Amino acid sequence: RPGLALCAGCGGRIQDPFLLRVSPDLEWHVACLKCAECGQPLDETCTCFLRDGKAYCKRDYSRLFGIKCAQCRAAFSSSDLVMRARDHVYHLECFRCAACGRQLLPGDQFCLRERDLLCRADHGPPPDGA
Q1: All structural domains of the chain
Q2: Which helix (H) or strand (E) segment is 118 a member of?
Q3: Model pLDDT, residue 115
Q4: Where are the beta strands (DSSP E) in 10-114?
Q5: Which candidate, 9, 58, 12, places its Cα nearest to that of 32?
Q6: What are the residue ranges of helices labelled H in the chain?
Q7: Using an 8 Å Cβ cutoff, are 91 and 70 in contact?
Q8: Torsion region of 109: left, alpha or beta (phi above 0 gives left; psi -120 to 50 gives alpha)
Q9: CA–CA separation, 88 vs 94, rounded Å?
Q10: Helix%, strand%, coil% for the chain, nearest 5
């Protein structure tokens, strides 16, 4: 359909012999599909992510919009093992008591106060009725 499509990047007509299609309905000039953050060309050789009509490379999309560790604020990679406490997610090495620094392991009792994790020794027994 060259000549009929409008580029989602520049808004111009795509009359080139080739176009790039992202998601079912967005088409781009090959030269216009770039990461909105770093400018890396996004073609058939790399993964493209869309958010609010802008295209991003995988690294920038993860950095800007991905879930981040509640302790170190770094993004997670797909191979990271994580620990969860309520709606907070942590790298395994970041899942530590804020008072004594002891790493908390699966099965350990802990308390979450604000964003601070506290081991049982540092938060004491639960209040009566809790």
Answers
A1: 19-65 (2.10.110.10), 67-129 (2.10.110.10)
A2: strand 116-119
A3: 78
A4: 20-22, 26-28, 48-51, 54-57, 82-85, 88-91, 110-113
A5: 9
A6: 58-65, 120-123
A7: no
A8: beta
A9: 12
A10: 10, 30, 60
Read off the amino acid at residue 12.
G
pLDDT reading at 104 higher than 50: yes
- At 99, the amino acid letter reads A
Given this model, what pLDDT does residue 27 score?
85
pLDDT digits (tens, 9 = 90+) for 27-79: 888 888 899 999 999 887 888 898 888 889 988 998 888 889 999 998 888 78
**Distance separating alpha carbons of residues 111 and 123, to the nearest angstrom:** 7
- The tokens for 48 are 């493209």
Q: Rounded CA gap, 112 and 86, in Å?
A: 8
Distance CA 37, CA 74 (A): 18
Q: What local confidence, expressed as pLDDT, does residue 3 receive?
A: 52
The token pair at 110 is 């802990």
Phi, psi of 122 (to 5 degrees): -90, -20
CA dist list (Å): 3 to 12, 30, 126: 10, 14, 69
